[in-house]
# Entry
Amino acid sequence: MNNPKLMLVLFAVMLLVQLYVPVSMVVSSEKVLSEGAEYKFKIDNNETAGNIYNDFIRLSFENNSIAVEDRDAWKKFEPVYVSISKDNEGFALISDVSKSRPSGNAASFKARVNYINEKSDKMIITLPFEMYYPETNFSEEERELYRKIMSDTTHIVYATVKVLNGKALLEDIYVGGVSLKETVKSESPAP
Amino acid sequence: MRLQHDIDKLTREGVISEETASKIRGYYQKQDEGRSQNRLHIAFAITGAILTGLGIVLIVAHKWHELPKTAKLAIAFFPLAAGQLLAGFAMLKKRESAAWRESAATFLFFAIGACIAMVSRIYRLPDDLPTYILTWVLLALPLVYLMRSSAVSSFYLIAIMIYAFETAEIPSYPHSPYFYWPLLALVLPHYYRLLKIKPESNFTLYHNWIFPFTLAIALGTLTDYMEELMVVVYMSLFGIYYMTGNLPFFRTQKLIRNSYLILGSAGMVALMLFMSFDDFWKHLRAQEFTPGNFMNSGEFYAAVILSILAIVMLFIRWKDRARNPVRPQEPFFLIFIIIFIIGFFTPLSPLFINLALLIIGAWIALDGARENNLGMMNYGLIIIMALAAARFFDQELSFALRGSLFILAGVGFLYGNYRLIKKRRANE
# Structure
């Protein structure tokens, strides 16, 4: 490649593409957070309390499965689209699963098949917002505090998720209606 | 060293005068000093770029959780913007400086990965390592050609190996470990250019090691339900490496630069030592393969393709045998295929492997002794010792049989040694 002008043009195009990718990630994420429909996903407290690691929490959700007719039609880790609706209490539940993005008005987003329970013929789904990275230094004391809060089954713990255009983003986690961040702050020992 | 030796020889023979010899020595000494200073600048520049980048990351990580979102985004994009400015400056004003090109490209390479990772973390996007790696390497690949960056090319090779590994370990549709091969092809022209234009450069040395090493590891991602066939795949691969190492282009270089020779030979010997035990062959004979199994397996096609490539390579080597003799390890991959097929039906295959290892080890040791090459001789002896150790502890053989075999081998070596000494004395 000996043409300097062509090299510079290609170089400029390369820089633009390198910028475009993260910028488009920001723009589409901001759109989901500002315009997306809000859904509340109930968290399984006990399961989540046992999944608190050094720098993240793996959230376990109560409604993360759906019955399927033909379990051989699905493969483990396959990407799928889940359609969601609300139950009587206003919490989200999975109403349908499909291999392609569904048409129509039902909210849907991309997820993955975790596995199919052979006894119940239920598909357990890996939701795209299961990993939660607390915005703190997440020391050992803090992790203990999170475990204590999660283990307290007197409160309902849920995650608010914004859904738009096949994407779902975790907005926040609430414990008995109070943001988890605030709950942790209020229960932390004074410095 | 060789040049010094030649100059001394020419001076002794009276071909050149002492004054001319001194001028030649002085000329090459200046060249070497210039080259080594340049290498030092490049190495320091790249190291400085990496350390600075990592230091910034650590400081930011410490206070990350206290920052508002806009500040986090600014921090996420800052390295990318800075890296692009540096790269632009290097392209416009310092294009002929390898230190500038390589360090700017290295910084930008890591800045791309850091920016995408930080944006993903800020918005809590789903963890998807294969997509992350694929996006990162494809965005960085043009740096290899537009900035002629061999550092980025090296990182690229490692990154696509990790990609292949991740997608094989946990299937992440639509990703597939098979994508590794077209991704590898994208960077090969750069490696070829390095070999052609700068065979002696340090970057070529790094590529000579990184390329075959990462390729060998990535090849393992083809393993599926016909895993037994992978021994044929790897024996052919190591055969190709070994024969590549014996091509004149590599053979004339220092051994440390000839990674193909080292990896090829060591890989074949290690695989043969593993195959010298009966466990693998017993497991092979217990399998019930059908022709359909073979036709549907990636391992089978990999074995066929690599074996064909190895045969082509052997043909090239055979044509050149007058100038550059074919070594005994080179056609071994072909013999191994026959041993492997026999292994389905009889328990004799481990015996053939043991014999082959013994012959190869002895041949290398004898070659080393003949050429006065201590390293080669020791390598041959190490192969024999490793084989001896493997058989000594092999529980499948009875004590009596092991003892008899060791005595036979020992007597064989003593007799061979006696014949060598006798021959040497006759020549003196």
User: Anything to note?
Assistant: Chain A touches chain B at residues 1, 7-8, 10-11, 14-15, 17-19, 21-22, 25-26, 29, 33, 75-79, 128-129, 131-137, 169-170 (CB under 8 Å).
